[in-house]
Specification:
By secondary structure, the protein is of the alpha+beta class. It contains two helices and four strands, in the order E-E-E-H-E-H.
Length: about 90
């Protein structure tokens, strides 16, 4: 996935003391009329759960979307048995 020079795609990395502990990727549609909407996925290493990392990544995504002037809709898919993720979202 190419994110370089894209106004509706974002990739964030969470780092603690030089170690990558999580990431978030958001991809907006390539279609012009759907460019304002996209979907994100998030991952945090298990040993770093309950530290607010996922929450901070989502806050950064929302702030970026607000400032983009393009993104109006953020979509998410989650497995129905992933209670931790559902509680977060």
């Amino acid at each position: 996935m190419i994110y370089y020079n894209s106004d509706n795609k974002l990739f964030l990395i969470a780092e603690i003391e030089g170690e990558i502990v999580g990431n978030l990727s958001f991809k907006g549609s390539n279609r012009r009329r759907l460019k304002h909407a996209g979907e994100f996925g998030i991952s945090v290493k298990k040993e770093y759960w309950n530290m607010g990392i996922a929450s901070q990544l989502i806050k950064e995504l929302i702030e970026w979307a607000k400032s983009s002037g393009i993104i109006k809709k953020i979509n998410l898919k989650v497995m129905e048995d992933n209670e931790r993720a559902i509680n977060l979202y």
